[in-house]
Amino acid sequence: MRLLVNQEDGDLSLEEFDDSEIPRYAILSHTWGADGEEVSFKNLLEAAGNNKAGYKKLTFCRDQAGRDDLNHFWVDTCCIDKSSSAELTEAINSMCCWYQRADKCYVYLSDISIPVYPANANSSTATWEAAFRQSRWFRRGWTLQELIAPASVEFFSREGVRLGDKRSMEQTIVEITKIPAKALRGASLTGFEVEERMSWAHHRDIKKPEDGAYSLLGLFDVHIPLIYGEGRQKAFMRLREEISKSSKRRDFEKLPG
After folding, report:
1. Cβ contacts of residue 146 below 8 Å, gap of 6+?
2. Paired sense of beta strands 153-157 and 162-165, if any
3. Could you say which DSSP state residue 178 is in?
4. Distance (Å) of CA 186 to CA 151, 165, 202
5. N or C: which end of the chain has fewer CB within 10 A?
6. Predicted confidence (pLDDT) at residue 252 exceeds the cutoff of 80
7. 158-197: per-residue pLDDT in tens?
């Protein structure tokens, strides 16, 4: 796993860790900006990208992690070398686990703006709560597992103002997502039927048609190769086949020895 770390001079660098050596870390959940706005793996290697709009997300995550006494953090835009198909496949198949293992997950809501010191606190709260329900973060395919997998999920405005967390905002999140509260609290997802878990992804958007299936791998604890270009139908067919195999393996393991 590759993590970001803050240097003494304020620059960010990347460090790689074996699974047995991964330190405590924070992880970012967000919605991607327009093409070219996000800081890439290549940008960091070349010490570039700090003039991009997406660099603000990195500094937000760095600063918040520091306040939580975490020296390392992970951001999908630049911690994965997407030019390597093998690394991308490994990352997507591991991503749910990475979110689950994080000490903190920070949700950066770029479409919610709150003055750091609002003149009218009550009015400001009413405004952002309405915007929160409409945030595009709740309509993105990849953010589904990023909501469910981590134990600690905290929501922030684009100014870095903390709005609340998964527990304090649970009822609102249930109303928005239709995901049962016990799933948000960390109950085993095997206790939910396949079709129910599939329904949580309804009305969520993805850029590549195959990602509709790939973004659900963690919810079913299965792994499949990525074949971009195969199309949505074939990707879901392979996903369902793997879910069926996994279910049969679990049933077999329950048989008396």
Report:
1. 29, 99, 105, 107, 153
2. antiparallel
3. -
4. 7, 14, 21
5. C
6. no
7. 999 999 999 999 999 999 999 999 999 999 999 999 999 9
